[in-house]
Amino acid sequence: MKTAVYPGSFDPITYGHLDIIKRAASMFDKVIVAVMCNSAKTPLFTLDERVKMIKESVTGIDNVVVESFSGLLIDYCKKENIHIVIRGLRAITDFEYELQIAQTNKELSHDEVDTVFLTTNIKYSYLSSSVVKEVASYKGDISPCVSDFVATALYKKFEKQKDQGDV
Predict the structure, then answer these.
(1) Catalytic residue list
(2) Binding site membership: which residues?
(3) Which residues are annotated as a binding site for substrate?
């Protein structure tokens, strides 16, 4: 059985992420969406909130599992016996960054882990979680970017921050 992992912070999950997940699910027997606890980022949503949103987003895709992890992706892959990492590419700039990470992971795993790059659907090529959060923070329309329940969660999060004086 071929298992692949699609790691990311998914803060929040967008239609671009879902496009990659659905396509990967059609290529592999099992896809693990691995939500990272990334020390370099300060997420808007907690790890549990992100996992919950992704689980709701992938309902009906039977071969997709959602988990969380911290630490190095290579250590997670070794622990779970995974040899394939999925990464999405929107533009050339993504490729330069992702290629460096893929090569590092290959080296650190002693050639045990390969990365498969999937180019995003052109209609999502502009999309990033950062852009979605920015638009949502100003109460802009994010319906073309995320599902209704993710949009609701974003608007509520920003409203709560506003009420607490954090924004």
Answers:
(1) 17, 41, 90, 129
(2) 9-10, 17, 41, 73, 87-90, 98, 124-130
(3) 9, 41, 73, 87
Please give, one letter per residue, the 3-state secondary structure of 85-116. Answer: EEEEECCHHHHHHHHHHHHHHHHHCCCCCEEE
* Residue type at 87 in one-letter notation: R
Give the chain's radius of gyration (CA, Å).
16
Name residues whose C-beta falls within 8 Å of residue 50's C-beta, 6 or more positions apart in sequence. Answer: 9, 10, 11, 12, 13, 35, 43, 68
pLDDT tens for each residue of 59-76: 999 999 999 999 999 999
Reply yes or no on domain 3-124 having CATH 3.40.50.620: yes
Which pTM was predicted?
Answer: 0.93
